[in-house]
Amino acid sequence: MRDPFPFPPIPALAKATQPWADRLSLPTLPLHVHEVIGAAALYTFVHVVVSPIVSNLFFSKYYPKHSRSKKANWDTHVVSLVQSTLINVLALWVMYADKERAAMDWEQRIWGYTGASGMIQALACGYFVWDLGITLLNFDIFGFGLLAHAVSALVVYSFGFRPFLNYYSTTFILYELSTPFLNIHWFFDKLNMTGSRAQLYNGIALLVTFFGCRLIWGTWQSIEVYKDMWKAVHRAPTPEYIQSYYNTTSSTIDAENVMLFAAKPEPIPVWLALLYVASNLTLNTLNWYWFFKMISAVRKRFVPQDETKEEKSDLIAGKEEREAKSTATEQAKRPVIVNRHRRQNSIEDLIPDNEELREGTIQ
Q1: Residues 215-274: tens digit of each pLDDT
Q2: What is the share, in percent, of the chain residues with pLDDT greater than 70?
Q3: C-alpha–C-alpha distance, residues 199 and 196, integer Å
Q4: Basic and acidic residues compositional bias: what residue ranges (predicted)?
Q5: How large is the average pLDDT for residues 151-165?
Q6: Is the pLDDT of residue 361 over 60?
Q7: What is d(CA 17, CA 38) in angstroms, rounded to the nearest whole number?
Q8: Within a 13 Å sphere around the CA of 71, how many CA atoms are in the beta-carbon half?
Q9: Burial label, 52 (beta-carbon count in 10 A; 0-12, 13-18, 19+)
Q10: Is the dihedral of CA 55, 60, 61, 63 positive or negative?
Q11: 87 near 176, Cβ under 8 Å?
Q12: Rounded (10°) angle between helices 197-209 and 270-302
């Protein structure tokens, strides 16, 4: 499927990008660099113009105008909400409409290319360019963790311009299906709607989509890409296989030669496969960790603190009752000894012991 982006490549921009593309072995970058820049510009516009205007217009009571860190956090969540919604709709449409992509075998999934999948990875790169810029400008707010995420995500998605795993650009961008619900959940907290019925329904949708798209879909597709890369590390498509795409008379293949940029493919470098696998494993591990953290966070918003304290008090009372019964039983078995010299009260009677401190029974 050809690139459906409404604006064609800008010749001057593509020409200026070509030397860098040749140096970095990214032959499809000049075809999509205008989409990368356009996406970065769009998200910058949303961050600088749209978010402040809309937020002041509809949520002036809650929009943090006078706190730089809180305002930056609010505006970036607005951008994230817009980006995740847009990219999800486009990725789902490409997966449905791109027939060449759907028919790919493992060689084409590794070395192949379609313009529609190239558009998705370009729009994703544009977002990560914006993300990198805004993180650098507000490093004191967002810190090293978000900077590392922006850099790694931009590098991994840029590999698609080799092209490398162009097929999987739409596959893994669907991790973002849960992101709109995550942003909405955050905004409910800021709008003093914590624990509301609306946040409950959104929280359920968040957990369901996160579990479905990141844990189930993501783990399954990760296994598939590992299998494809294992084959690609050990062998490349045969010259006969590649030549068949250039000699064919099929109008479908001529219209979209998916192996156009793989005239002389070689087995993928081991370093590239290891880098991709390491990034993917890290993200999948974080997804499982975040899922259980989200369950805990959602539960805290809907389980009253008084109920939690009451459960804790019941546990402590039950333990004290069992200890008292045990002590009474032991004392009943001992002979009664009359203490003629009663001990005087001391300051030690007022000091909690270590067990009380550990259990929190002393407030």
Answers
A1: 999 999 999 999 999 999 999 888 878 877 765 544 444 446 788 888 777 899 999 999
A2: 79
A3: 5
A4: 309-325
A5: 88
A6: no
A7: 15
A8: 14
A9: middle
A10: positive
A11: yes
A12: 160
Q: Note the Cα 99 to chain centre separation in Å.
A: 28
Total Cβ atoms within 10 A of residue 138? 16
* 68-76 contacts at long range (C-beta below 8 A, 24 or more positions apart): 68/141, 69/138, 69/141, 72/134, 72/138, 72/141, 72/142, 73/141, 74/190, 75/47, 75/51, 76/47, 76/134
DSSP-assigned states of every residue in 17-37: HHHHHHHHT-TTHHHHHHHHH
**Residue 272 near residue 164 (C-beta atoms within 8 A):** yes
Please indicate whether residue 237 or residue 308 has the higher confidence score (pLDDT): 237
pLDDT at 348: 34
79, 46 contact by CB (below 8 A): yes
- Could you identify the residue written with the tokens 């579990």? 211
Do the beta carbons of residue 316 and residue 359 sit within 8 Å? Answer: yes
Neighbours of 90 (CB within 10 A): 19
Distances (CA, A) of 82 to 148, 200, 275, 331: 22, 22, 30, 70
Give the per-residue pLDDT at 116. Answer: 93
